[in-house]
Amino acid sequence: MLQQPIRKTFDIGGGRMVTIETGRLARQADGAVTVSMGNCMILATVVANKEAKEGQSFFPLTVDYQEKFASAGRIPGSFFKREARLNDYEILTSRLIDRALRPLFPDDYFCEVQVLVSLISSDVDVLPDAMACLAASAALAVSDIPIKEVISEVRVARVNGEYIINPSRNELEESDLEFIVAATEKNLMMVEGEANECSEEDLVKVLEVAHEAIRIQIKAQQELRDLKGVAGKRDYTKPVTDEALEQKVTAFAKQKVYEVAKGALPKHERSDKFAAIKEELIEFLKSELPEGESLPDQTKKLASTYYSDLQYYVVRDMILDEKVRLDGRGLEDVRALDMEVDVLPSPHGASLFTRGETQSLTTVTLGTALDELLVESAAKSYDSKFFLHYNFPPFSTGEVKMMRGQSRREVGHGALAMRSLKQMMPTGDFAYTVRVVSDILESNGSSSMATVCAGSLALMDAGVPIPHHVSGVAMGLITKGDKYAILTDILGDEDHLGDMDFKVTGTRNGICGVQMDIKVDGLKMEVMAQALQQAKRGRLHILDAMYECIPAARAEVKPHSPRMVKLYIEREFIGAVIGPGGKVIQEMQRETGTTINIEEVNNMGEVSIFGVAKEGVDKAQAWIKGIVAVPEVGEVYDSVVKSVVPFGAFVEFLPGKQGLVHISEISWKRLETLEGVVREGDTFKVKLIGTDPKSGKFKLSRKALIPKPEFKPREDQQRTPPQGE
User: Fold this and answer.
1) What is the DSSP track for 293-349?
2) Start and end of every S1 motif domain (predicted)?
3) Segment 179-208, tens digit of pLDDT
């Protein structure tokens, strides 16, 4: 018989109860819990190896979040009808968990850890990604795997001015900002989200609201751990250390490292000089050995580790003490900017954005509704009209690597740029599907922010009517005791050695996107507020340069870009436009060279016409307007003769609408026959003079548009009027 599960329930607000349970499922894992709210249930398991692999020098953490389609009563749509590789949504959720959990482990813990989180029951109103990190942290809390603290994660949305914790799907659609925040009881750990140009003060408020909710969830995890009786955490083998060797490395290399760090060198030159110092260090250590004796591998490995640590601390101290950075900039200086648009002849929009040693070549492609991206999850699937792809080839950092598809990092960076630019994308009558592709050509810090800037430029170059430019800047933080330095527009090396990686995107009016990872305990809210204000100054500096490059979106798409118009028709006309078996719409597409898509939206027919040639789009638009037009008596129309009969001619005066021009309405002259007068295919204007009251057929006249000739009697018919007339 299964043991009785251990449960802890708490309220996240509005009477919504969340239950954490352990002891019933997946009992052979080191830690396993389920988190449930409504019908939504998430299973999280965690397993860690007892020992690190020999020679391991990094922490191998794997986090996978997956949604089982059975959780929503659905069968996957793939060929094999089973869950396959993680989709982008699952990858992004996995990254949210990973980034929050990774700082919890001790710096000297190198045992492999695997965290698996699965959605096993779905609720259409509950967003599971907001509870996935809670489940993962709870699984670690009830295990003996060594972690320093317990964390949790919540989503905060603002709906009609009210801040809501873990909103429903419907509430989220009505919100003007949404952020996912992870934190320990005392410190923020991770922030990611988007907003419709919110202020820095609004973001600080979000963080405060989120932290209060997170503390409730952390307390519930701690109580669950106590109920289970977790006494302590397992011991693990610590890496080998050698204090004497560390002192030798410091004495030999510290000044040399400082001189290179202070030299304001380009990235590769600086790397080469640091590598040369390392080689000198190894030769120095060899010189202390008896002749003919080689340096042990363990000593080489430790010396390399201590040398890397030395670089880390020397550069940090230089920035903190002297307010000078690796490339010679001040703390708030943005690297040199260079940007241009219309750099490629064939794409519908293109830009090249360069900031220092980071460069993005970005293109925009305009497509039809048939090009929309299917975004699929267990609970809901929908089509997206705007999406962005980010590519980071190895040559961008001067490396040789295997090309094996997009990495999780590429998916995450692309998502941040997409959600930032999405805030400015037009809606309503803008019928295009828009794909943005950012190819990073070189990288030394914050290529995702370069993608945001390049994407904004390329969208305006393509004629996409975005109202404002969006720029982004990556911020860094270095702390030591009470001293700290906030860095604007960080380099790749500064990202590695800093205590915070903080990316902020936005317009001149406010914030559009945020991604933040904090690697240090005790980040004060006032430091966060200062970082936000400094980021705003950097963002505005970049925006000024972008507006100089292209101040507004082009009035029209480029000549070689496809044309698209959208019009709305009454719902009852949808069938007439499509025709029996699609005959009418297929004929229109064939004759005009366009693609036509019709959907029923809000009890109206939404018609999108897409074509390369403007003439074809205009012709299709006129054709559809003719089909849905209601003929009015007294109006004049252009007509085409479709057939000639003894009593008149049948003409098409609007697309799909025909009427009879009776032989008596062809001309003021009496005609016995139309032979030689009217032929099939002739065109002339006609006037709608009425409809048959019985059949409803249209009556048309040509002679009504011809001046009536004056009557002149012949001379032999003239007579002398009687006297008196």
Assistant:
1) PPPPHHHHHHHHHHHHHHHHHHHHHHHHHH---TTS--TTPPPPEEEEE--SSSSSE
2) 634-703
3) 999 999 988 889 999 999 999 999 999 999
Q: Where are the beta strands (DSSP E) in 215-321?
A: none
* Selection from 263, 415, 409, 404 nearest residue 326 by Cα: 263
Contact 186, 148 (CB under 8 A): no
Residue with tokens 């060279």: 593
DSSP structure string for 131-184: HHHHHHHHHHHTS-S--S---EEEEEEEETTEEEES--HHHHHT-SEEEEEEE-
Evaluate whether 118 touches 136 at the Cβ level (below 8 Å). no
CB 189 within 8 A of CB 245: no
For tokens 């999405």, what's the residue? 422
Distance CA 268, CA 398 (A): 9
Residue of 673 and 229 predicted with greater confidence: 229
Annotated binding site for Mg(2+): 495, 501
Query: Do 200 and 529 contact (CB within 8 A), yes or no?
Result: yes
Q: Using CA atoms, how far apart are residues 474 and 504, in angstroms rounded to an integer?
A: 6
The string of pLDDT tens digits covering residues 310-352 is 999 999 999 999 999 999 999 999 999 999 999 999 999 999 9
As to burial, measured by CB atoms within 10 angstroms (0-12 exposed, 13-18 middle, 19+ buried), residue 649 is buried
Q: Which residues make Cβ contacts (< 8 Å) with residue 609, sequence separation at least 6?
A: 564, 565, 566, 567, 594, 595, 596, 617, 620, 621, 624
Residues sharing a CB contact under 8 Å with residue 233, sequence separation 6 or more, in sequence order: 144, 145, 146, 147
Find, among 120, 150, 118, 145, the residue nearest to 132 by Cα: 118
- Residue 42: CB atoms within 10 A of its CB come to 27
2 CB burial (10 A radius; 0-12, 13-18, 19+): exposed
Q: Which of 95, 107, 117 is nearest to 26 (CA)?
A: 117
Find the helix or strand (DSSP H, E) in which 354 lies: strand 349-355
Evaluate whether 399 touches 463 at the Cβ level (below 8 Å): no
Annotated binding residues, as ranges? Answer: 495, 501
What totals of helices (H) and strands (E) does the chain contain, helices first? 14, 29
Q: Is 452 in contact with 421 (CB distance < 8 Å)?
A: yes
* Whole-angstrom distance, CA of residue 458 vs CA of residue 554: 11
Lowest mean pLDDT across 38-52, 79-93, 541-555:
79-93
Residue 127 has pLDDT above 90, yes or no: yes
Burial label for 404, CB within 10 Å (0-12, 13-18, 19+), is exposed
Q: Any idea how long the chain is?
A: 725
Joined together, the tokens standing for residue 302 give: 């430790």
Q: What is the pTM of this model?
A: 0.84
Residues 157 and 178: beta-carbon distance below 8 Å: yes
Q: What is the model's pLDDT at position 387?
A: 94
| Residues 206-226: tens digit of each pLDDT | 999 999 999 999 999 999 999
Concatenate the DSSP letters of all residues of 607-665 into one string: EEEEESSHHHHHHHHHHHHHHH----TT-EEEEEEEEEETTEEEEEEETTEEEEEEGGG
Residue 725 has pLDDT above 50, yes or no: no
DSSP helix/strand/coil, 507: coil
Query: How far is 149 from 693, CA to CA, in rounded Å?
Result: 85
Place of tokens 């020397």: 314
CA proximity to 301, closest of 238, 244, 245, 236: 245
* Token pair listed for 479: 């702390």
Give the H/E segment covering residue 116: strand 113-121
